[in-house]
Design goal:
347 residues; 3% helix
Length: 347
């Protein structure tokens, strides 16, 4: 195992960005950059031992700054959407930035995804990134300190550990927004990937992709992904999918109890790569890349619609406005902790 520190350029204001490359004993490696605490590359082997990058994103800092749709970025303090960009907490209403359609707050308006984090090498397996935010920035209450640790094990597991502290009651719901294509960089479709999600219910949405509040059974719907299903088979088959241009929904993980458990598995038949996703959070957003519009990515290849997919572990979208959803409220003085694991094998 080893960790290498490299320069990854500088922002227009002169702030330096660093890249850390973790390589394990089998040759798998992950690269993370301090801009957005972003996973930039992830090389894992196929069934024949060929190691290839399975993340669709960008080769350089300019791509992440100018053309990025959160590819690989850490999203915080609140991932996903909050209705009407507001919520009420302890009797006070908090107004956020309505950065989606002028109405919805999406991904905290990119607050911590567009900043440079500090980084330290913890050991030969792990890099930890840290950032602080001030009370009221973007509308969220509380001074907060976030840290995200990225660990690559010798078993080809990428472990992401989130830690956050706050000096005021607030809502905290971080995630990572990696876009995967297990076939590698030459593939321009996610359609042939086989996906299984450990969920009996999902959260239907309205025209603004805000949950209606219902926890709807997946039975007899295109959201029944409890057995391996080709992503492209039913992606346009119902009104819910028409609202979001394809899969872009939260699935309610079966048996949630705050412990680490399997929430999704994806297989790519051509390469034989398999990815298992484990989390201690109650939900996972399956997004099929419906709104990608051809921005140039790695190797100047366009990031076209549905060229990749995301599995974003999370609390449910708009949780602060739905008392029936599992709560992501963190009290003053408490520490938020969560772990997500992406485990790579072959079949």
């Amino acid at each position: 195992m080893s960790v290498e520190k490299l320069s990854f350029g500088a922002l227009s204001a002169g702030e330096s960005v660093e890249k850390y490359v973790i390589t394990n004993k089998s040759g798998a490696k992950v690269s993370v950059i301090t801009y957005g605490a972003t996973i930039a590359e992830l090389f894992v082997p196929d069934r024949n031992g060929k190691t290839e990058d399975v993340l669709r994103s960008f080769d350089d800092l300019e791509g992440f700054v100018e053309r990025c749709n959160y590819q690989g970025m850490t999203v915080a303090p609140y991932a996903n959407r909050i209705a009407n960009a507001k919520f009420t907490l302890n009797g006070s209403e908090y107004s956020l930035i309505p950065n989606e359609k002028g109405v919805t707050n999406l991904h905290s308006a990119g607050e911590l995804s567009r900043r440079v984090w500090s980084a330290e090498i913890v050991d030969d397996h792990t890099v930890r990134m840290t950032i602080a935010r001030k009370d009221g920035v973007g509308g969220f209450p509380g001074d907060m300190t976030f840290s995200v640790s990225f660990t690559l094990t010798d078993e080809n597991e990428l472990k992401i550990e989130y830690n956050a502290e706050t000096n005021a009651d607030t809502y905290i719901n971080p995630t990572n927004h990696a876009y995967f294509n297990l076939a590698g960089q030459d593939s321009d479709t996610n359609a042939d990937h086989l996906i299984r999600i450990e969920a009996d219910c999902f959260t239907p949405v309205d025209a603004f992709s805000i949950p209606t509040g219902e926890l709807k059974s997946v039975d007899s719907t295109p959201f029944d992904l409890r057995a391996f299903t080709r992503i492209g088979d039913h992606i346009d088959d119902c009104e819910q999918l028409a609202l979001t241009g394809g899969y872009d929904h939260n699935f309610c993980i079966r048996g949630f109890d705050g412990t680490l458990r399997l929430c999704a598995t994806v297989k790519e038949p051509g390469s034989g790569r398999m990815m298992e996703v484990l989390t201690d959070l109650p939900g996972v957003q399956f997004y099929a890349g419906n709104f990608l519009a051809g921005a140039l990515g790695k190797g100047n290849k366009p990031l076209n619609k549905r060229c990749s997919f995301c599995l974003e572990t999370q609390f449910y979208p708009d949780t602060p406005n739905h008392p029936n959803f599992p709560s992501c409220l963190v009290k003053k003085g408490e520490t938020f902790r969560s772990t997500t694991v992406y485990r790579f094998t072959t079949f």
